[in-house]
Amino acid sequence: MLQKPNWDDYRFVLAVARSGSVSGAARELGVNHATVLRRVAAIEKHLDVELFDKSVRGYEISPEKLRLIEAAREVEAAVGAVERMAQAGEAPLAGIIRVTSTHTFCHSVLPAILSRLTAQEEGLSFELLSANGLMDASRLHADVTVRPTYKLPDDLHGDIAAQMGFDFYARGADVPEECWLGLSGPIGRSHPGQKLREELERRHVRFMAASDSFLTLRALAEEGMGRVMLPKFLGNASDNLVKVTPVLDVPPVPIYVASHVDLADAPRLRQARARIALALEAEEAMLLGGVLS
User: Fold this and answer.
1) Of 89-98, 107-116, 144-153, which gets the smallest average pLDDT?
2) Hey, what CATH topology would domain 69-164+254-287 get?
3) Which segments constitute the HTH lysR-type domain (predicted)?
4) pTM, whole model, 2 decimals?
């Protein structure tokens, strides 16, 4: 009969899952490469399952093994909780939560929210991943996704936490009406981005520059390069921009807090989404048009 692995064995599996490589896990845990290989192999032998897809890109989690990995992460959080309960009597949300969102949210919205959450919960930390495109949550690149979108893709499950408004800005009202900054990449393919491009092409405007980042577009607009559509909270926060006449009506965009459908019911992630969603709800007035504090 195989000897049952202890909790320490699972730490090696989770370290490989986080880093995506044996060498990265070895650095994280302060052991050598061979030790990581041996401990992971022992777990896989005990469970009679291969947890990782091994390729030149590193160690990736097989989609069908996501629940096993998340179960191990639940154990990791629970072990930490037991230790803290012994010391302080209570241990709510803990462990590392990987949050992905757009460049704009990672820069201007989420840092303050996540800072408050970590201050409230001992043992809780976040890894904030910035990407305007949807990250591959099925590969455990992200636990929680914060996305302004009218509709979530089928592989994500979550709820609307707040809404975000858009408006139109320029360095000054004297910026010519035919000079505009274009939206490219994922923000250009979004519903507001597509509607704006269609309207501006109909008006035969001149695109002075374009970017896939609202932060970059704001900087270009502040240099007087053209008129631009921005999230209201971002445009209103600039001392160098003024509102200009809208060229179309843009409905507020819902902000979802979601996880991959296979992991959405995991208690730790469900609790993390609820905390982040509640914090975003408290910021809705700002997201719809208030000025950043």
Assistant:
1) 89-98
2) D-Maltodextrin-Binding Protein; domain 2 (3.40.190)
3) 5-62
4) 0.67
The answer to whether domain 7-61 and domain 69-164+254-287 are alike in fold is no
The answer on pLDDT for 87 being more than 90 is no
The total of other beta-carbon atoms located within 10 Å of residue 86's CB is: 9
22 or 109, higher pLDDT: 109
Question: What number is the average pLDDT over the span 114-121?
Answer: 88
**Full DSSP string of the chain:** -PPPP-HHHHHHHHHHHHHSSHHHHHHHHT--HHHHHHHHHHHHHHHTS--EEEETTEEEE-GGGHHHHHHHHHHHHHHHHHHHHHHHS---S-EEEEEEE-HHHHHHTHHHHHHHHHHHSTTEEEEEEE-SSPP-GGGTS-SEEEEE-SS--TTEEEEEEEEE-EEEEESSTTS-TTEEEEE-HHHHHSHHHHHHHHHHHHTT-EEEEEES-HHHHHHHHHTTS-BEEEEHHHHHT-TT-EE---SS--PPEEEEEEEETTTTT-HHHHHHHHHHHHHHHHTHHHHTTPPP-
